Amino acid sequence: MNKEEIILNIEKALNEIRPFLNSDGGDISLVEVIDDKHVKVRLEGACTSCSLSMSTMKAGVETTIKKFVPQIETVENIA
Q1: Angstrom distance (rounded) from CA 13 to CA 68
Q2: What does the pLDDT profile of the chain (79 residues) look like in tens digits?
Q3: Within its chain, how far is the Cα of 67 from the centroid?
Q4: How far is residue 34's CA from residue 32's CA, in Å, rounded to a whole number?
């Protein structure tokens, strides 16, 4: 997968997650992809102060991104 395909598939993954985040007043955006295997995202809105944001990152965001782009090794939320 080239860089463009990776970014496109990550955006598809985020679009799958976004309705759940939106329903709680939050959102997510892609910040950058490093070396085609490390992803930085930004949780926004209500997600920035939510006590469950770490669970959301691991169980929801990271799992979904890795489903769409298996070569991704890490997903990190940057504030």
Answers
A1: 6
A2: 899 999 999 999 999 999 999 998 999 999 999 999 999 999 999 888 888 888 888 889 999 999 999 999 999 999 7
A3: 11
A4: 6
Cα–Cα distance for residue pair 4/50, rounded to 1 Å: 32
Q: How many residues does the chain have?
A: 79
Amino acid at 67: K
Residue carrying the six token digits 């990152």: 57
- Tell me how far CA of residue 31 lies from CA of 70, 75, 76, in angstroms: 19, 11, 10
Q: Are 76 and 38 in contact (CB under 8 A)?
A: yes
